[in-house]
Records
---
Amino acid sequence: MTKRILVVDDEPQLVKLLALLFKKWGFEVETALNGAEAIEVVERVPLDGMTLGIRMPRMNGYEVIRYLRRTDRKIPVIIVSGWVQALNKDDEQDNFLMSNVQALFPKPVISDELKPAVDRWFGPP
C-alpha cells in the first residue's frame, strides 16, 4: 500500500512543488494551504507523514503540532519554512516545535537535502 503524505503551506507554488516531488518519489499526496485545512485532512484520511509550514493564516504550524500531540496522532512531521533560521532555542514556543518534529528545513528547500529525511522519517512509499 502506498504511503500518503500531507503537504501544508500557505504558498501554493511550494505546495505544488512538494506535491510533485513526493509523487515522483512514489507517495500519494494530500495538500492544504493552512493549518485549519490540514486538520480537516488529518481527520479525514490516514497519513504516514506531513511537511508543515510554521507561519500560516487561520492556524499556524505550532497549533497543528499541538493538535496532533493532543489527539495522540503519531504522524511524523518535517517542517519546511522560511522561519526555520529565525527559531530561538530559548523561546518556549520554538522549543516546543523543535522537540515535536523530526526535521527542520529552511525555504527554499532543496530536494537532495529533503529526500534523506523523508526516507528516514516517512519510510519507503
---
Amino acid sequence: MATTAGRPSRQARVSRPRAARVTPSLVAGVLLLAMALVLLVSASPPQARPDARWQAFLPPSFDRILVGPHGGAVWQGLIPNRAAPLLHRPSLVYLPPRLDPGRRYPVLYLLHGMPGSPYSYVRGLRLATVADGLIFRRALRPLIIVMPVAGKDGRYDGEWTSGWEDFVVHDVVPWVDARLPTIPLPRARILAGMSAGGYGAADIALRHPALFGTVESWSGYFHPLHDGSLAHATSMQLDAHDPSILLERVGGTLRRDGVRFFLSSGTTGDRRLAAQARLFAASLRRFHLRVQLLLRPGGHTHRFWRAQLPSALRFAAPPQPTLGGRSAP
C-alpha cells in the first residue's frame, strides 16, 4: 500500500469503514423489534411435557414415541395376544394430558385399515395433536385411545375377521380395563375404525352388542367383501359377519342399551361407500337409534379422515356439562 510520510494514502483513507451513526430513529427501531420478539415468544405455547404419572399404569416395555402440544402422549408396546403369542408388532396407546389420578376415563378403540397399522392414526391423521387441542379447549372429554395392531401385514394369515375380533374382545379390552384407569362400562367404550377397520368396528360391535356403547365407521362398508380372510367363506359365514344382517337381529338390544353410531364418508371420491353409509344410517334410524351421518366432499384418503376426525372424536366423548367452571361429576 502506497503511503506518504508514514500516513495511509488518500485511497486507503477513503476505504476505511466509517462508524455507524446511532440516531433516535435507529434506537426506536431496535426497541420495537425487541418488543415484537418478546411478544412472539410469550405468545408461543410452552413446550409440553408428558405426565410422568402415566408410566405407573403401562408396563415398562412400553415406550413413549410422541408428545402432543399439551402433554398428551402416545406409547407403543405389546398387548398380549393369546391366539398369536409370537406376534411382535406393537399396538399404540394415547394417554390424555392433565392426568387426574383419582379420575376414570372413557376408552376409544381404533381399528386401522387393511393393509395398515396403528401408526396411520398417529402419523397420517395426527391424532395426538387433534385430541390434545380439543381436550385443551374443553371441546372433548379427556379419554384414552387404544390402537390395536391387526397382525402381520394387517392380517392374521387369512383369519383377519375372527382373529382381530378375538384379540379386541378377549385380549385388548380386558387388558386395558385391568391396567388403565378406565370406566369399565359399555357406555364408556367406543369402537371405531377407518376403511376396513370401519367395517370391522361395525361387525365386532354388532356381534358383541353388550360391549360397546358407541360405534363409529369412517369410510367403512356394511356388507362383507368376498376377499381377504373371507375369500372362501360360505354364505352362512358371510351372513355371520354382515353388519346389515346383524342389525336386524340385535337392533332391539342396541336401542334398549342406547348404543350410538357415527358414520362418515367422502362424497366425491367414495360414492359407493357413501351410498352404503346412507342406507345403513336409515336402517339404524328404523330402530330409533341415535346416529350422526357425516357426508362431505372427499375420497378414501387420509385427507378426508383428518378432516372428519374432530367431529368423530367429539361424538365419541362429548365434553361433560360444567358446574361453576368445573366438570360435572
